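Q: Okay, next protein. This is DUF3100 domain-containing protein from Acetomicrobium mobile. I've checked the sequence twice, so it should be correct. Can you predict the 3D structure?
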Amino acid sequence: MIEAIKNWKLHILVLIFVIVAEWIGAFSFPIGPGKVVLLPMLYALIMGIFSGPKFLKLANHKDMIDAGSLIGVTLMLLMAKYGTTVGPNIPMILRTSPALILQEFGNLGTVIIGVPVAVYLGLRRETIGAAHSIAREPNVALIGDIYGLDTPEGQGVMGVYICGTVFGTIFFGLMATFTAALGIFHPLALAMASGVGSASMMTASVGALSAMFPEIADKIQALGAASNMLSGLDGVYMSLWMALPMTEWLYRKFYKMKYGTYPSQSAVREG
């Protein structure tokens, strides 16, 4: 952490990305009955991706590791800022608390969609780790504790974790704007849905919604922050008691549909 803070090259790159992104500003275009908003955060993320060793090589592997170690610190500051919006909206949050708690059942949709796709793509026991959740830190710890991270299940959850880290924020920001532009769901419902247990993904989604509906931006931020906190608390239990058993069951069913036989017991034990 100390070495990362002393990495001046990294700080200068980040400052340049922020200045350029803010200079571009928010960009919106109409779609259907609403509009899609692209925020400076999205531009900064894209510039960060292309600055890495795989593309422009402005940042090396060590710089990427240093940047990753500082994410937690910056998100703590961001969540503290969001915390200031929760207090004034406590009555509204209490009124919506049943919905905030029950929304965790939406995680089962990940299982229902993810398992068939993973098996179809040829994944074996990796499906269990990859498709049981959104694969954030608590889920990685859960899979590591039950199966071990050096197993196929561990490889599956780590693969989704890495993809979510790289692309999740961009995906959530765009998904929030496109969904809001359709006008099907109330923006406060979308704010609650933004809290999936990832502060960065929630921030991208809430930021886009706040830009689209500035008149209720404080309520959007408060519900997004509260939802994200509750997802972090009850998400692990939902995964342990419902999502993982359901994933195991669906995996066996779809494996048999594709290969004509159930997974061997030896493969299960090795997993």
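A: Here is a summary of the prediction. The beta strands are 27-31, 34-38. The radius of gyration is 20 Å.
Q: Noted. On to the next one.
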